[in-house]
Design brief:
single chain; 284 residues; mainly beta; twelve-stranded mixed β-sheet
């Protein structure tokens, strides 16, 4: 399916989801990418939990990844808790009981990626609350910087030097966060950075992508339309939708990218210019 989306993220987009209304406190969420935008593989949101806020223990019939944007949250996964701060990330496997709480002095916000796409409200129930989950003692709650299964911390120093792939893609680097080696099966989550003057020209995929800018600006072109991606915006490209990124804003750009479903081992990227060049060589 072709299609793409671009939107700003206003404060008015946040609301309490119906599923959580009776089993959470001081929680709200901004739904960014889903079926309304044309997606069939993604549920992508920003969750917000105010100081003193909680989300009771629950499970999903889908996989969930989180990346903390600001503040600090405690995540209880099946009785083992971890403290997540800015740029920390974690995976909640399908069917794993988990709960959240914010014991800090400031609100916490995190990107939340769910796959397969959650069912619509009022449809088949794909999430369930569980019996109250016990929280471990404080001295057993570690941070994401401490090596632990299915959690980690991102720092820009982890990015490799910018690379040139070919005549159509250069000035980019990537740091993988959630992938099969990390324990994920339904999606990929990673950091992309392009240096000033870099680009990746028009291409498409047999999977969906979404892009959330952390800092900087980039020109995003999709299906013949252009947009400026910067903090406070979100973009998405659907299956078969030609899209590219061009660093012509006088700055570098770093964004969080998610892919769903996980791509094939080979030929995940179909570059239009490469195939145009090949076609012309055959015609000659």
């Amino acid at each position: 399916m072709a299609g793409h989306a671009f939107r700003e993220i206003p404060g008015g987009l946040f609301a309490v989801p119906a599923f959580y209304r009776s089993r959470s406190s001081r929680y709200r969420r901004a739904d960014l990418i889903g079926r309304k935008e044309g997606s069939v593989h993604m549920g992508l949101q920003i969750s917000e939990l105010q100081p003193g806020g909680t989300i009771d223990g629950h499970i999903h019939s889908f996989e969930k990844g989180i990346f903390v944007l600001e503040g600090e949250v405690e995540l209880n996964r099946d009785g083992k808790a971890i403290r997540l701060g800015k740029n920390d990330y974690a995976l909640v496997p399908t069917g794993m009981p988990h709960a959240f709480r914010n014991r800090g002095a400031a609100a916490v916000r995190w990107i939340e990626k769910c796959a397969p796409q959650p069912k619509a409200d009022g449809g088949w129930q794909d999430s369930f609350f569980v019996k109250p989950m016990a929280w471990p003692a404080d001295d057993s709650i570690t941070g994401a910087a401490v090596p632990a299964r299915m959690s980690g911390h991102f720092d820009k120093s982890q990015l490799p030097p910018p690379m040139r792939v070919d005549d159509f893609m250069w000035g980019w680097s990537r740091k993988m966060l959630i992938d099969p080696m990390f324990g994920g099966h339904q999606f990929l989550l990673f950091i992309i950075e392009f240096t000033e003057g870099g680009q990746t020209s028009s291409h498409d995929h047999n999977f969906e992508e979404a892009y959330f800018v952390l800092d900087g600006e980039v020109t995003f072109e999709a299906e013949g339309k252009g947009y400026v991606l910067k903090p406070g915006t979100i973009a998405w490209s659907g299956v078969g939708a030609p899209h590219g990124f061009y660093m012509n804003r006088g700055t570098s750009c770093c964004w969080l990218e998610v892919i769903s479903p996980q791509p094939p081992v080979q030929f995940a990227n179909r570059r239009m210019a490469n195939w145009d060049r090949f076609r012309k060589s055959l015609e000659a």
